[in-house]
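Hey, resending since the last one bounced:
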Amino acid sequence: MTRWQSTGAAVTRSRETGTLHPARRGLRSTFVGIVANMLLAATKGIAGVAGNSYALIADAIESATDVASSLIVWGGLKISALPPDEDHPYGHGKAEPLAAVAVSLTLVAAAIGIAIQSIREIITPHHAPAAFTLIILVLVVAVKETLFRFVLRVGKDVNSTAVRSDAWHHRSDAITSAAAFVGISVALIGGEGFESADDWAALFASSIIVVNAVRILRPAVNEVMDAAPPVEIETSIREAAQDVAGVILLEKCFVRKAGFSYYVDLHVTVDGGLSVREGHDIAREVKRAIRGTHPQVVEVLVHIEPSDLMHE
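The structure tokens again:
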């Protein structure tokens, strides 16, 4: 079963069993992340100041930006779930990838701030971090990695770029915490002269955050720009259309994603000797076949092309 088919199956189950709509599932996972990040940011910030660890303070800053970015994702999901209206006949789905773009830019801004402060701490002599900060970091890594796996699974199930970006934000936080753990460990084991290992760890973590930001940004921008979805999606749509009686071939098949939905434009070739009504009936069956096998397709525009192949 392809990723597209499994996603469609999940939507079908949602409709049949009355489970949560994809947008609501995304909102729920985002809310869990917001609450967790607020608690973690406060915990790491207090521990970082008390334990003299800038890596932990930088980690707290990253968690704070997680809260802000999750709120952006929350807003994007809420807007994207709104139905079409007079001003937005195709719905509000673009709000979802736009939220992902905003999240990635927030990550970059946080990484730059952490890197600048890390360099300042490296060139400024200071005491080594306290040992108890390592316990805090172990707990943080465990919580953030668990959140990453949970939110990423939801993002894949509902096929949401914004929710997946929120998941990678949790992963980047887990990485910064792991880097801080290594840096503090080196500072404590190395003793005098190794105090800045903590700050080098924060600097390394900032580069990892940028990498994750780019990873989030690329698919989000592609979706905003109406880039073609994965090949298996178009292939499965073509197969559904070509199975309809009366369809000779498909000349064109364009698919674009907007939020949780897909829009399809097809050029279908039929027997040129058919009446307008018969051609219309085939087009209607093509739409029914595609939407029946692909629940996330909300609109199918079929252009009928005549062919004289059957009369030659």
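Confidence is low (pLDDT under 50) at residues 1-19.

Sorry for the duplicate.
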